[in-house]
């Protein structure tokens, strides 16, 4: 019989083992858990959605009779039965058992749904992430679970239900930002938008009244903007109607020698706004977009 693996050897094996398989194996061995927990857990994608957790391509869910299941590539591996629990308590226990008390959890992309706002912040784990997609109405509910070393994020997509949420540093300084605005969110002030320090921002909203794009451009004409950023605003109206709207406001700055949908608007300082009106090509009911790119005029 071959000798058992030494701790250094076991550490190497566990660190590079598929994370879901590693968690499933360790969950059945208390002695292995003591060895496994301090070893960094690294995976590409992580979903926390309703009562399920997805690690890369493995779904961890509660199946029939509250039996916890690991589902991957058509195979189902059953684990312990926690008993009858509410959805929130079941999800909390799952996160505590599998991710709590870990020294390092590194995730490339993390996805959180609204259930995260009900998870207690004392569950004992934080993620170090590059990208986050959050469906929580308030991103503040997600922040306690994110290692501060993750900021600024490379990409952030988040729901927003209050204009004040734009003041969160995690939102303001993400490199790429997509904001999904709740239907009844109050209109945004141009000053709040100007404070965003992101490299690119996409506004996903259901009503155009949420952001007065023309007022934002006029604000930059009068006050300038130091940072070079790109802002993308979707519209329900068609491309032709949107071009007509920009023609009425900023027709004198239209680049007619290039195309009929581009504008170069000088603003205070050494910057200008390059505006491009295009047909929307996404999978929602938007019809057109206005892309505002702040560039140096020098």
UniProtKB/TrEMBL annotation:
It comes from the Eukaryota. InterPro entries: DUF3557 (IPR021942). This is F-box domain-containing protein.
């Amino acid at each position: 019989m071959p000798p058992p693996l030494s701790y250094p050897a076991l550490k190497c094996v566990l660190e590079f083992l598929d994370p879901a398989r590693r968690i499933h194996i360790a969950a059945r061995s208390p002695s292995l858990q003591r060895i496994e927990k301090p070893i960094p857990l690294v995976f590409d994608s992580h979903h926390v959605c309703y009562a399920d957790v997805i690690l890369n391509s493995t779904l961890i869910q509660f199946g029939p009779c509250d039996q916890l299941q690991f589902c991957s590539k058509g195979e189902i591996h059953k684990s312990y039965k926690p008993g009858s629990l509410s959805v929130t308590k079941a999800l909390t226990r799952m996160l505590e058992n599998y991710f709590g008390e870990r020294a390092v959890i590194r995730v490339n992309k993390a996805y959180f749904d609204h259930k995260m706002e009900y998870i207690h912040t004392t569950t004992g784990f934080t993620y170090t992430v590059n990208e986050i997609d959050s469906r929580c109405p308030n991103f503040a509910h997600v922040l306690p679970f994110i290692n501060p070393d993750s900021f600024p994020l490379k990409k952030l997509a988040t729901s927003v239900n209050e204009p004040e949420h734009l003041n969160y540093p995690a939102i303001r300084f993400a490199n790429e930002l997509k904001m999904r605005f709740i239907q009844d969110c109050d209109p945004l002030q141009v000053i709040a938008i100007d404070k965003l320090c992101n490299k690119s921002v996409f506004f996903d909203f259901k009503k155009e009244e949420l952001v007065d794009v023309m007022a934002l451009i006029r604000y930059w004409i009068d006050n300038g903007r130091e940072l070079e950023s790109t802002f993308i605003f979707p519209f329900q109206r068609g491309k032709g109607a949107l071009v007509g709207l920009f023609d009425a406001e900023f027709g004198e700055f239209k680049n007619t020698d290039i195309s009929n949908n581009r504008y170069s608007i000088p603003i205070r300082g050494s910057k200008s706004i390059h505006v491009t009106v295009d047909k929307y090509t996404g999978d929602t009911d938007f019809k057109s977009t206005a892309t505002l790119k702040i560039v140096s005029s020098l």
